[in-house]
Amino acid sequence: MALMNLPAKGREALVSAAGARAMDAEAAAEWSLNGFALVEAAGRRAAQVLAEAYPRLFEPPGPAVVVLAGRGNNAADALVILRALILGGLAAAERALVITAGGPDGCGPRSEAFASLQKMGVRGLAFSESALEAEIRDYPAGPLAQARLVIDGIAGTGLSGPLREDAALLARQARNCAGRPLFVSVDLPSGLSDAWKPGMPVAEADAVLAIEPEKRCLYNPAARPLCGRILHVGGVFPAALTEKYREADLVSWDYCRTLVPPCPADSYKYSRGLAEIRAGSPGASGAARIAARGAQAAGAGLVRLLVDPPLYPVLASSASSVMVDTCEARPGRESRFAPDALLLGPGWGRGPERLRPLEDALALEERGVPLVLDADAVFLARDRVFHGNALLTPHPGELAAYSGIAREELLADPAPALRDLAGRKRAVFLFKSHVMIAAAPDGRLAVLDGMNPALGSGGSGDLLAGFCAGIAARCRGADLFSCALAGAALLIRAAADPGLRNRFFDSMEVADLAADLAGRAWLPGCAGRPGGGG
User: Fold this and answer.
1) Domain ends where: 246, 272, 288?
2) Sheet of strand 11-15: strand arrangement
3) Which of 68, 190, 193, 387 shows the smallest number of beta carbons within 10 Å?
4) Which of the 8 DSSP states describes residue 262?
5) What count of other Cβ atoms lies within 10 Å of the Cβ of residue 489?
6) Strands 11-15, 214-215: parallel, antiparallel or unpaired by DSSP?
């Protein structure tokens, strides 16, 4: 069953900061979209997005607003946002303050936007510690003391190196002023860049108005918690220009669900594929059970679980609708149970007895059978080069052990390592964290934004591996990169279900929610019953 190529709802372009600067330059040179036009479009659209995201904040009389303005177009965007809020009746000029950091930009967009705000009655303040102290002392009911909204436009994609200490100080003091403001950064939290490393100063944001195309560094796992709620601001650049500079994709369930075709109404268990899973060990039987349930939930027609003999009585009696056998069985030896996809590794251990089944699975991968390697199997296969039919699902610690790259370096920016490994190893890599990143051997890169504590709970990785194997089994001949995206999006969407909010995360419960989601998306008439007919 081939995977479908459908419209890209839920798919946004990601670029590097350098790519964004090159795109701005081409927009001016080739499209007659100079800095003034882009700043005006971005600022007005960002104001609309902000007002829609926080309607209560803008109830009359509107919030006291402080804008932190650096030197470049990022500051100009922030100033145009303020102007649009005032013109739209959502903020008042007399309750707004612009704090400038850095000298003037001549007659550029920043200066023009600032001049128009001053004409409207907005006060300006040149930043210094003493100036901030005097502002709070002399205007105890003024915008800085009473701010409910701070718009951070100190630095954007033009930043090279760490944020200056005075700029970092300005951001900290504005964020912590008495009004407990909503701190909103324009495009990027000031200080964040492609070169940012943990420990470098950055203006931690409650929300980011991410102007298209969004910057990939927003989604680096170490940086992502500093960005708060990321609000997409579109409608600024022509689609053809955005597409030209796309370096990676930001994808969600809305897009990823279209990568997997629905099952025909007359499908049955054999037509929906058999997922064979080798998992579990004494003390880790839960990993095997969860992985098997994940493969079921994702829609595999049959799931066969092969386990160590001591686990057989426990799992055979409790694994509903799953065929359980002992691990003496060899992959693919019985034609009746020839697997359509293999999963090895959840809770498996790294003993020498695992090497023979790993070799058998690798031989099937060479012959075209999709192979998903998780947890211990990732480590055991660290020296292997695959044949384009493997998907590896490491978390940061596992990828560090696999690659020899420090965990901290991977969390700061895993994309370069993932792209390199995917190309050299001829396999798809799905990096698991609160942000998931998938890389394919042909250079494709996609990001899925999770930011849910449920994704870090025990069993979530086993469930994800099961999802990927189940999708690969029933989509014979599938693109494993698409299978990885669909599986990851299914986990994120199910874990975010309102039914789990404020409750203890349970992988089996998420699997049940995922079964319902997969049923509605891929198994018409079978929602919640991924096992199918007899």
Assistant:
1) 246
2) 214-215, 11-15, 248-251, 445-449, 435-439, 428-431, 390-393, 371-374, 341-344, 274-278, 302-307, 323-326
3) 387
4) P
5) 26
6) parallel
Return the CATH number at 467. Answer: 3.40.1190.20
309 backbone dihedrals φ, ψ, rounded to 5°: -50, -40
- Residue 10 in any domain: the answer is no
For residues 335 and 241, state if they share a domain.
no
pLDDT of the chain, 534 residues: tens digit per residue: 444 443 468 999 999 989 999 999 999 999 999 989 999 999 999 999 999 999 999 999 999 999 999 988 899 999 999 999 999 999 999 999 999 987 666 678 899 999 999 999 999 999 888 888 888 888 888 888 899 999 999 998 888 888 888 888 889 888 887 778 999 999 999 999 999 999 999 999 999 999 999 999 999 999 999 999 999 999 999 999 999 999 999 999 999 999 988 887 777 787 789 999 999 998 898 999 999 999 999 999 899 999 999 988 888 877 677 888 887 655 555 567 789 999 999 999 999 999 999 999 999 999 999 999 999 999 999 999 999 999 999 999 999 999 999 999 999 999 999 999 999 999 999 999 999 999 999 999 999 999 888 787 888 999 999 999 999 999 988 899 999 999 999 999 998 887 765 566 678 888 888 988 898 888 764 433 333 333
Domain that holds residue 63: 17-246
**Would 7 be classed as within a structural domain?**
no
